[in-house]
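Thread: sanity check for a docking pose with pyridoxal-5'-phosphate

Original post by kr_44:
Hi all, I'm comparing my docking run against an independent structure prediction. Below are the sequence and the ligand SMILES. Could someone generate the full complex and paste the structure tokens? I mainly care about where the ligand ends up relative to the chain.
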Amino acid sequence: MHKITQVMPYISVSELELLKTSVEQKWLTEGPYSEKFIDYIKTFTKSKYAVLAPNGTLGLFLALLALDLPKDSEIIIPSFTFYASATAAIFAGLKPVFADVDENTFNIDVLKLESLITNKTSAIMPVHIYGHSANMSNIIELADKYNLKIIEDAAQGYGVTYKKNHVGTFGDISMISFFADKTITMGEGAVVLTQNETLYKKLKLLRNQGRFHSGTFIHQELGMNFRVTDMQAAVGFAQVNKFQNILNQKLKNYEAFKIGLADIGDLKFISIEKDSTFVPFRFFIKTRYKIELMKFLENNGIQTRSFFYPMHLQPKLKQYCNYKIPITEKLYNQGICLPLHFYLKQDEIMYIINSIVKFFDKVKVRTDINYSAKNLSCQHH
Ligand SMILES: Cc1ncc(COP(=O)(O)O)c(C=O)c1O
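Reply from moderator J.T.:
Ran it for you. Here is the predicted complex with pyridoxal-5'-phosphate included:
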């Protein structure tokens, strides 16, 4: 059997067609498709303003430059996130303060967040992890109470709504990534959203060499180049039409896993934040046998990925933390991502489920772990 990969973007003739048109138009830097794509994103997310960025990492960096927070002030970031959330803050001259997450939703634990706020805190960066929203109501309440800015890392949040509003439209500024493993993709790319006109103007200047329009050589502000190509935007513009299909298929696959893996071994799943929709990023499982199960699945042709390694333990980030962040560590110790993409077939899902069932049968034999009979009984034998 071929290897079952973690991700595979849903690409068809529509991307090729728009890409061809883009090249034929001979306008390769930001142009007609970039405009169409941004207009679509603004309508879809109901965001007042949006600009493109070359990728999510630089999108976060650009957003933080626009926010212009006091140098060396503290920004609270969940330790359970992708590296870029923290590094963007450091490169923007801020000090990351890592917060723990909720054991069930994997999103920032708002109850523990307040104790991390000091008179140096300038911002909170909630990360909408794995395809659902953080608890934005409580985060906004805290930010209001302590006068903090909110920058939402919605890299994984395309299509996710919280209380009927798209993630990324709650904070002062936010980023959604269109990297190749995201729900829809432009290969590399991202958007930065804001509802604030002043921030929007700053974003425009920062991303385009300190001027509002190309073709002029008087630059009223300091700025850099955060533009993308129109070819990427053409691919993104073709992708947005596929969102509902991709979502339906992913939800169907997610449900098949959930039913098939219910009561198997010690497996636990993610709980979706109340008031949030879910655009599944992968299928997530937690088990005390992470290492062994990953090895077993890889040996059986199933590509796995670990949950994130905690930010507060990263070689270059641990200097920012001198306290324990236990749930994030536990998630790393137990978490595995299973493949969940548009092309995954039902028989592949059954194969993955059966492989996991087989693994837990072996674990029982090998180590005589005292599972309850209920946990081991399943419909797949
Ligand atoms: C939570 C999170 N933040 C930031 C990023 C960075 O985005 P990009 O890969 O587009 O640079 C990613 C991932 O790709 C992510 O998952």
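Residues 243-366 form a domain with the Aspartate Aminotransferase, domain 1 fold (CATH 3.90.1150.10). Hope that helps with the comparison, let us know if your pose agrees.
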